Amino acid sequence: MSSVKMVFRGRNLASSFAVGATTKQYIGLMGGSFNPAHSGHKLISELAIKRLSLDKLWWLVSPQNPLKPKADMAGIEERVQNAVKVSGNPKIKVMTIESYFNTQYTIDILEILTQRFPTTRFVWIMGADNLVQFSEWKDWEKIASLVRIAVFDRPNFSFNSLASKMPRRFFRNRLRERQGLVLKNKFPPAWIFFHTNLSHISATKIRSETISSFIGDRDQKANY
């Protein structure tokens, strides 16, 4: 059985479904390509667990982000294996639920999760860079009305993200930063923006540095 199948067919997802159907939980959801997962993902995840008082946080590794090119996308098994190594926290679970249910858009998987976990309070976690383009997501207003949202600042994105369409559309539903612990008990739409420790790390930068390193090593070997 492949590592990907183990993630979504094994004890991780199966037990979560069994427990989630009857137990009240507070779970953060961070979706994305994780191409690759890096310390910035882990930083935001651990901040979310602490500042929102979450029981768990799931990394939902998507087969293919509709807003990103396929050209430089690593295989999902490789991305999952890397995410498991990077997560390094028992409260962070790497999941491939979107592959399991064959969904492509965030709204689709959120509708499935909220139906299958009726007693669970979900909080969607994302960086400020994603808030800028949030209005490009399929049924973005429905997403904001379906789950609570916590946004964590990213370098150089504070102004543009808070001036984007979603914050303006739901400005009356924004909680103050000191209200982080109560977000999970608010009924959507409800969202919060954290001005917190900023991470300059990005998956794009890591991929670029990896390729540059590979080319450099190859050129260096060619000179011998």
Whole-number total of structural domains: 1
Q: Strand sequence of the main sheet, in spatial order?
A: 3-2-1-4-5-7-6
Q: Work out the number of β strands.
A: 7
- What CATH calls the topology is Rossmann fold
Question: Which characteristics define this entry?
Answer:
seven-stranded parallel beta sheet; Rossmann fold; 11 helices; 7 strands
Molecular structure report:
The chain is an alpha/beta fold. The chain has a single domain (3-222), classed as HUPs (Rossmann fold), CATH 3.40.50. It is 45% helix and 16% strand. A seven-stranded parallel beta sheet has the order 3-2-1-4-5-7-6, sandwiched between helices. Helix 3 links the parallel strand 1 (26-32) and strand 2. The longest helix is centred in the last third of the chain and has 20 residues, at 203-222. The N and C termini lie far apart (42 Å).
Compact overview of the structure:
This protein is an alpha/beta fold and 224 residues long.
Topology:
Blueprint: H1 3-9, H2 11-20, E1 26-32, H3 39-52, E2 56-61, H4 76-87, E3 92-95, H5 97-101, H6 106-116, E4 121-127, H7 128-132, H8 140-146, E5 148-152, H9 158-162, H10 165-169, E6 174-175, E7 191-194, H11 203-222
Parallel strand pairs: 1-2, 1-4, 2-3, 4-5, 5-7, 6-7
